[in-house]
Amino acid sequence: MTQRLHLVFGGELVDPSKNVFKDVDDLHIVGIFPDYASAFDAWKAEAQKTVDNAHMRYFIAHLHRLRDEEAAASSTEELG
User: Fold this and answer.
1) What is the 3-state secondary structure (H, E, C) of 35-57?
2) pTM of the predicted protein model
3) CA–CA separation, 36 vs 1, rounded Å?
4) pLDDT category, 32, cuts 50, 70, 90?
5) DSSP bridge pairs for 13
6) Which among 24, 22, 18, 17 is positioned nearest to 9, based on CA atoms?
């Protein structure tokens, strides 16, 4: 069975219309989740906590897309 890991993280943005973090050292790493449904639940819970702050954003990163076990060389292996 293929594992589809997802990372949920967030932080304060410089401008709410862009995806540039104000301080990457201050990112909130919520966690890594085994499937999209549990990642979505975690994302939603964190996003709702900060709904009054327009500059605060949470994201779901599809970690499983960074590494394709079927490919001869995944994009992360090419980095060295």
Assistant:
1) CHHHHHHHHHHHHHHCCCCCCEE
2) 0.78
3) 15
4) very high
5) 21
6) 24
The angle formed by the CA atoms of residues 69, 72 and 73, to the nearest 5 degrees, is: 85
Q: pLDDT per residue over 51-79, tens digit each?
A: 999 999 999 999 888 766 565 555 545 54
Structure tokens at 29: 């790493």
Q: Which amino acid type is present at position 77? A: E
Tokens of 46: 């964190």
CA distance 25 to 66: 22
Choose among 58, 56, 51, 47: nearest CA to 22.
Answer: 56
Helix boundaries (H) for the chain: 36-49
Phi and psi at residue 63, to the nearest 5°: -60, -30
